[in-house]
Structure formats: structure tokens, C-alpha cells
Write a structure and sequence with these properties.
Layout lengths: L1 H20 L1 H21 L17 H13 L7 H14 L4 H17 L3 H16 L4 H8 L9 H14 L2
Helix pairs in contact: 1-2, 3-4, 3-5, 3-6, 3-7, 5-6, 6-8
Length: about 170
């Protein structure tokens, strides 16, 4: 414990010394960090509304598709690194997003899935929201992302997720 305190003290001292020697740069850096943290959800068209579930704050169909794809992959357990990498590539290709946008969508999608208490509850809720925000036009895009994620036969959780998607999109 005393080593941790000494380490944190040393880091704090170094930051304090740097701020004293470069006050303008320190203020600019702090301002940039605050602005980035505040604008990150706006950049992805996500607005948390008071008194509503976080899924209701999704305004961008790409975020909903990403969250559904993550829930689909995790339907029967944690995904492998290969599945995560494949999902990342699909998000960049099919949703035409940059590297940074894809990473942010993955983080936000994972958080949204956990706010729904897991993949089984997330798929129907996210699918209803996706259908609501784009009137069902994202169905093809969603299929383009989900189809390559299927490896071999579908698991029971994935079959249930597809049934939930069909109900939400009335297909």
C-alpha cells in the first residue's frame, strides 16, 4: 500500500511540476479533455434522456445495429477475439465508419447491452428502437452485419435473437 501511495504521489508531483512550468499548455490540455468528454456522445448521436431507458436515447441506426450485433455475438457466452475483430471490420465496412467511430460504437453498444441486462433482453429492445428511428429501412444493413458473424450452426440464443428481430421488424 505504501508503494502505491508513493507512486501516486510521484505522479501527482510530476503533473503539478509540469503545470507550474507550462500553465498555458496545462489549461489547454484540461480544456481539450473536458470538451472531448462532453462531445463524445453527441458525435455518435446519442442523448441520454432523464427518466427514460438509455436505449430510447439512440438517434443513429448504426449505434443500434452495433449493439444488436454485439448482443447477437454474445447470445450464448462471451465472444472470442476473432469474433470481436470480425465485428469491428464489419462495422467499418458495412456501416461505413472510421476506426475511431467503430471503436466508440462498440463501447457504447456494449454499454447499452449491459443496460438492458444482457443480450437476451437487449435484442428485442434495440430492434424495436432501430425499427422506430428508421422505419425498418435498416433491416438489410443489419443482415449484412449479422450474416458474416454466424459461424456454422446458429446457437439457441442466436435463434431466439433472430426471432426477436423478425417480430420487431414484422418480417
Amino acid at each position: 500500500m505504501h508503494i502505491l501511495i508513493a507512486l501516486l504521489t510521484a505522479i501527482g508531483g510530476a503533473i503539478w511540476w509540469w503545470m507550474r512550468m507550462n500553465p498555458r499548455e496545462a489549461i489547454d490540455t484540461a480544456s481539450d479533455l473536458a470538451t472531448t468528454a462532453i462531445n463524445a456522445p453527441r458525435r455518435l448521436a446519442f442523448r441520454r434522456k432523464t427518466g427514460q431507458h438509455p436505449v430510447e436515447g439512440i438517434d443513429d441506426p448504426r449505434i443500434a445495429i452495433c449493439a444488436i450485433a454485439q448482443a447477437f455475438v454474445e447470445a450464448d457466452g462471451l465472444p472470442t477475439q476473432e469474433q470481436r475483430d470480425k465485428l469491428h471490420v464489419l462495422l467499418r465496412q458495412k456501416l461505413r465508419s472510421t476506426e475511431e467511430e467503430a471503436k466508440e460504437m462498440e463501447v457504447l453498444g456494449r454499454w447499452l447491452m449491459t443496460q438492458c441486462d444482457g443480450p437476451a433482453a437487449a435484442v428485442p429492445r434495440l430492434a424495436r428502437r432501430l425499427n422506430k428511428i428508421d422505419n425498418g429501412t435498416a433491416w438489410d444493413q443489419l443482415q449484412d452485419v449479422l450474416y458474416p458473424l454466424v459461424q456454422g450452426e446458429l446457437s439457441e440464443g442466436q435463434i431466439s435473437a433472430i426471432d426477436d428481430l423478425r417480430v420487431a421488424f414484422k418480417r
